[in-house]
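Hi support team,

I submitted a single chain yesterday and got back a structure, but I'm not sure I'm reading the C-alpha cell output correctly. Could someone confirm the output below corresponds to the sequence I sent? I've pasted both exactly as they appear in my results page.

Thanks,
R.
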Amino acid sequence: SVHHLICEFSVHQTKPSISKMFKAVASTLAFAALFVATQVSSQSPSAYQLPADAELILNSPVSTSFSCEGQSYGYYADVDNNCQIFHICLPIEDDAGQIIETAQYSFVCGNTTMFDQQTLTCNYPEDAFPCNEAPSLYG
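Hi R., thanks for writing in. Yes, this is the structure output for that exact sequence:
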C-alpha cells in the first residue's frame, strides 16, 4: 500500500539521518571538549611565558630554574635571573582545601630595574634590597 511505502521510505530515510546526526553531534562534542581543554590550558599560567624579546633587556639568558612548588602565595624574586624576573606563586586548592598544584606567573622588570623582594616592586639596583639575599624574605 501507499501508506506502507511512505512509512518504509521514512524509516529508511531516518536511519541515515540519525546516523549523520549522531556523527555531527559526536564531532561537535569532541570539538567542544577540545576547545574547552584549550581554553582551560591557556588560562592556566605557565612559568616563564615572558613578552617577546624580553631577553633583549636581561643581563643574561633566561634561567628557568625557579619553581613555585612548595611556596605559599606571594611574589618571589628570581635570583638565578639576577632578580630581573619575578614570579607570583598561587597555590590552587581542591574542594577539600588540599593544594593540588601551584600556578606560577612570571614577569620581567623594566629595563635597568630588578625585583626588590623587600618592597615587592621593580626598583633600580642601587635602591633595591640585595638580590642574592631575596630568599631570606620569601614567604
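A quick pointer for reading it: Residues 28-44 have pLDDT under 50 and may be disordered. Let us know if anything else looks off.

Best,
Support desk
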